[in-house]
Amino acid sequence: xxxxxxxxxxESGRIQEEKDRRHRRNPWRMPVRIVYxxxxxxxxVLSGLVFFSLHTGPKHPDSNPGVVNPxxxxxxxxxxxxxxRFKVNLPARMPSQYKVEKIGxxxxxxxxxxxxxxxxxxxxxxAQGSEDISGDYNEYPVQKTQTAAGMKVTLKGRGDLIYLAxxxxxxxxxxxxxxxxxxxxxxxxxxxxx
Length: 194
What we know:
Elements: H1 2-25, H2 32-55, E1 71-73, H3 77-83, E2 99-106, E3 110-116, E4 121-128, E5 142-148, E6 151-158, E7 161-168, E8 172-183, H4 184-192
Antiparallel strand pairs: 1-2, 2-3, 3-4, 4-8, 5-6, 6-7, 7-8
């Protein structure tokens, strides 16, 4: 009986030593169930964060409070005139098929009217000062100066078509941009009607 008890004690000591040895070999070892439970919790938390951020972000993805759009549209020329800091002089006559499509300003400093015949456009700009406000930086092979309404006008184009006319008086600068091009006589007719 003593021998059996000694064997049991030895066996129990050996089992305990084996457990201690395993624990010393990898003290951070966790049961697999705990690892899976922690991983599942992390997945749930991350999924919730992604869902929350997608559904509580900006309502308008285009809106960026750090960027201000300088373009402002108006319903009529009177509203444009009130918004800008100078008198807006418009051509009195455009080709009959062209109607005002857009009225606006850039930073309330450049007045712009876009005329359209449904296919082609003419963009008229004016602002205080004497610099070129056309926004057209293309190189044109044809550049010439003409007189219209008592002012010297620089016409720029290719071949027989004019794509840009720029001029200034004592207080304002002007630009007439015609992306599809127009005959010189038609451009001068528009400018003479100012």
